[in-house]
Design a protein that fits this description.
Largest sheet: 8 strands, mixed
Shape: globular
Number of strands: 8
Order of helices and strands: HEHEHEEHEEHHEHHHE
Strand content: 15-25%
Oligomer: single chain
Bound molecules: S-adenosylmethionine
Helix content: 40-55%
Structural class: alpha/beta
Length: 276
């Protein structure tokens, strides 16, 4: 099923599979997100607003860092995925995390936060400056903004080169691009922060690099292709037989191993700032 909400250019299919893969993908991103939150100064007791919570991985991370004295409010358009997020938060025993279904472009929250955060959400939003400007209004002096977005224009590549990997990264980039989501959001974060009225943010880029038989990246890439498959097929980007998604992770692994190579996978850009 495709999610065709006018408020988002979200390209990934909406299904149990996607909800599960969102959580698997988070395992790759989470260490760099924790690092971002540490760099940004998110500490015990803070009230955090998480934009585009999805299955709740960022909210869970923030809840861990702010502790029981702090709180997290997560917003997402998709009320079904928020049920998963709520169940996970409750299983983890966090009492101070609340999710609300809604459009991040239209946040009317009625109270203030110490930090506003988001991961892989601004690329889907038609007016990211307006979203951050609205979030900015909910931050007082010393408030923190910390965001992470991918940049798919930085080539994903294997060393030595791997033809299958080149094709797969081309499908992913093209599918995101044709869905209207912004594949260069990572590089645009600095300008978006400034346009939303924040001071000059600090920036960091993190490229996920791996190789060997056990690397999680092959499954990660194949899972992303599976989530984008309806779009890949509908747009004629690749034929299902060529994608052969059931065996894709194994083929990526085998071909990388045959060259004893490494893969430079997605680049996530982090931007963070504390208001004067
Ligand atoms: C790729 S997921 C990322 C989820 C989570 N931030 C993470 O990193 O695990 C993007 C999420 O943003 C949500 N989203 C996209 N546009 C939105 C909007 N305008 N308002 C609220 N949520 C939105 C989608 O529903 C989806 O759950």
């Amino acid at each position: 099923m495709h999610f065709n909400h006018p408020a988002t250019k979200y390209a990934l299919s909406r299904s149990d599979h996607e909800t599960q893969h969102l959580q698997e993908r988070a395992l790759l991103w989470n260490p760099s997100t924790r690092q971002l939150f540490e760099n940004a100064g998110i500490v015990q007791g803070m009230r955090v607003l998480d934009l585009g919570s999805g299955a709740g991985d960022v909210a869970l991370l923030a809840a861990d860092m702010v502790g029981p004295q702090g709180s997290v409010l997560g917003i997402d358009l998709d009320s079904a995925i928020l049920e998963t997020a709520r169940a996970r938060v409750s299983a983890a025993g966090y009492r101070s995390v609340v999710f609300r279904s809604g459009d991040v472009r239209d946040i009317d929250l009625g109270h203030d936060f110490d930090a506003v955060v988001g991961r892989l959400v601004l690329q889907y939003v038609s007016d990211p400056v307006a979203v951050l400007a609205a979030a900015n209004r909910h931050l007082g002096r010393g408030g923190i903004a910390a965001f992470q977005e991918a940049d798919w224009t930085i080539p994903v590549r294997a060393v030595p080169p791997c033809a299958l990997l080149d094709r797969v990264s081309g499908w992913i980039r093209e599918a995101f691009d044709r869905s209207g989501s912004d594949i260069q959001m990572g590089a645009k974060l600095r300008r978006i922060f400034l346009s939303a009225g924040f001071p000059e943010p600090k920036l960091h880029a993190n490229t996920f690099l791996g190789g060997g038989a056990e690397w999680v990246g092959y499954r990660h890439m194949a899972g992303l292709v599976r989530s984008l498959l309806p779009l890949i097929e509908a747009e004629g980007i690749a034929h299902p037989e060529e994608v052969a998604v059931e065996t894709l992770a194994d083929r990526l692994r085998d071909q990388t191993l045959s060259g004893d190579g490494v893969v430079f996978y997605t680049t996530l850009v982090s931007a963070w700032v504390q208001k004067d």
